[in-house]
Amino acid sequence: MTTTEIAPQSDTAARGADYLDRARSAAVVIEAEADQIEAAATITAPAFEALSARDLFWILVPEDYGGAGLDIVSAFRVIQELSRADGSTGWAFMANSCSMAVAAGYMNPTGALGIFGDNRGITAGMVVPTGSAVRVDGGFRVTGGYQFASGSAHADWIGAGFIVKDENGDPVLDADGQPDARISFLPREKVQFLGNWDVMGMVGTGSYDYRVDDQFVPDDHTMETFSTTPVRPEPVYELGLLGIGVGGHAPVALGLAQRALEEIAKIVEAKVRPGYTGVVGDSDLFRLDFARHEAMFRAAQAYVYEVYGDAETAAAAGEPISDEQRARMRQVATWVQEVAGEVVTFAHRWAGSATVRNPSALGRCVRDAAVATQHALIDRITLAEAAPAILAGYQKQ
Hints:
Layout: H1 9-40, H2 45-53, H3 72-85, H4 87-106, H5 109-115, E1 123-136, E2 139-149, E3 157-165, E4 181-187, E5 192-195, E6 208-218, E7 222-224, H6 240-245, H7 249-267, H8 284-316, H9 323-351, H10 361-372, H11 381-395
Parallel strand pairs: 1-3
Antiparallel strand pairs: 1-2, 2-6, 3-4, 4-7, 5-6
Helix pairs in contact: 1-2, 1-3, 3-4, 3-7, 4-7, 7-8, 7-9, 7-10, 8-9, 9-10, 9-11
């Protein structure tokens, strides 16, 4: 397939189904490794091999860069399945695959081919412009301290966002009068990892702190932080950096909610409690609560895939993604975190001591969901920011 062709819908669906089957196969290994992943605070070697050997990391990298070239819904289904197997692994994988999509879709093709192509690179790291850099011949010299490098333990290239500064240390302004903000990707040997990942949930993501000290990055390994124009023709990249990077949190939440429902369904089959005439799972009170929360999960799952699928379909048809569609992507990425939190809490309340004793898959879901809802990019303020464009659609009726 050339860089200007789009795969037929039937081919796209078949490829998505193939990679979801690969994810389900990898999930068997990941579930078996989940306790050790949490103990090690990073993806273990067997889990990494299960993902790498099935070519899963590169699901959002174009085919002519050596990736799968999946559509966003197919990619999100893979992330959901891996998150169902283990929240930390799903989160770290999401961070890798979504940052790779950003690099492939928006970076100079020469730099992208240097990262991907024959090298089969994996990226991770903080792309928010918390560092600084000065312009030098052929690129930049970057310095900065960074946090939350999820999936960095097995990454070859580490992202480092920065603001370009002049010789006086003042921000250089772009054509719009805003500070020139960029994302760079450096070989991991140029990065100093600081550890400092001791947390209550998402423990196995290996989201370490790190530092970059006056390291040279060539121009073709950088990109504009707030670019809205992809360098690739595939419609998935029209979703934008936020659409892909923030959107990736949605299937992680779905995976946590799905696993919580699976776990509580098994737990209540034999669980007895004072006041119940039989096992908890046979009580009308539990069944009512379960039916409500299972419906919440199904509704959230359908809405996530509807919103992102509609936006990519519009892009594939050559239409601009509307303000309402972009607002809905932001809306659902945040709202699904709230749904997942409620579903996991429901399961936790009915499980009793089953989530208290370690190791416990449901206990991990509880801790992971508590951390997942705290990410800055899915703060509830994003719902308020999304509301005007969604309201406008109703007001036009």
